[in-house]
Sequence to fold (160 residues):
Amino acid sequence: MPGSPSGSGSASASAPSGRPQVSELVRLAKVVGELAATEYPDQYFGACRDEATHTLYVMRVPGGDFDQAVRTRVTERLPASNARLVFWEAAGSRAAVDELRARITADAAGYWKDRGIEISQVTVCLDGAGVRVDSPQARRARAEIVARYGRLVAEVVQVG
Fold:
């Protein structure tokens, strides 16, 4: 994601008791995750936080009332929050992307091997773009892989 955090940022700071203090963004991400899991599993991909800018990036498939539901739930559960919410478009829900990763991985031993294509690895892109497929034959297999699995294939990368 250009202009967005590449990781999850700092998870906590030490409280006076010496125990880690859970950041507001961690609590916020939990509220969003719970709402998404129960009411919007087909839209939600995930969230990442940037403690430095006090921003929670919510990755989701746009549409419906998910964004408004998140804002409402955050206001209800963390009314004093001054965290910034940024909604980021994901290619698919986490469930859909995980399902595709599993499907391609399962096809590697039979379907792709029978065609002389080695699938070295299939990775979920943490920015919500889809999956990355690594193959020593990526140059010749790219079009066929994308044709078979569709738009959730974000990259087919030549390895080895």
Q: What stands out?
A: The chain has two domains: 12-89, 94-158. Residues 138 and 144 are 10 Å apart (CA to CA). The longest strand covers residues 44-50. The longest helix spans residues 94-114.
